[in-house]
Fold this protein.
Amino acid sequence: MTEQNISSKQQWLDWIAKIQSIAQAGLYYSHDRFELERYQELRDIAAEMMAAEADLPLAKVKDLFCNETGYQTPKIDTRAAVFQDGKILLVHEGTGKWSLPGGWCDVDQSVADNTIKEVKEEAGLDVAITRVIAIDDWRKHNKRNHPYGVIKIFSLCRVLGGSFEPNIETTEAKYFAEQELPQDIAIEKNSLDQIKRCFAAYRTPDWQTTMD
């Protein structure tokens, strides 16, 4: 698929997601039964379009794409940049790919608490956050594999203690120099550019948070 075709496909996915968000808001705020019927029909059409464009079963798309109520907002994903002797910590996932420790922000966690929790769960380390590196719009930086928006927050962390133990999410934790980063990076979670930006922030004491 050419770069132009990829851009066109992403544009269609953006339009479909926008239609779905309008329909979801309408279903939440409207009280007239005729309007509710129209918004539900609009939501069903958006799901059918997404299923056709993404080549996924309609039932799966509805489960992922139409499973919420209320005004639609992006999901929050937190990622931790942990360094040791100039090298960055990556965790090896069950998928066989490497990523910065992190994951979806749980509903009962703040961004800081979730970042710390994910490092503990995936790398076995206790950390403290020193600064926020970046707040990225996932659409502009990562491989897009979700039908909803994602905001990714990268934080620089320092190690307080702990050690890695194999778990249900990761099989290994290892530090990499910038010139030795693995090829099999989970780019939907953190692109090579995002990891390199973490190195830049680590080397820059007065780093200014980047934000889309």
In short: The longest strand covers residues 125-137. DSSP finds six helices and eight strands in the chain. Strands lie at 75-84, 87-93, 98-99, 102-104, 125-137, 150-162, 170-176, 210-211.
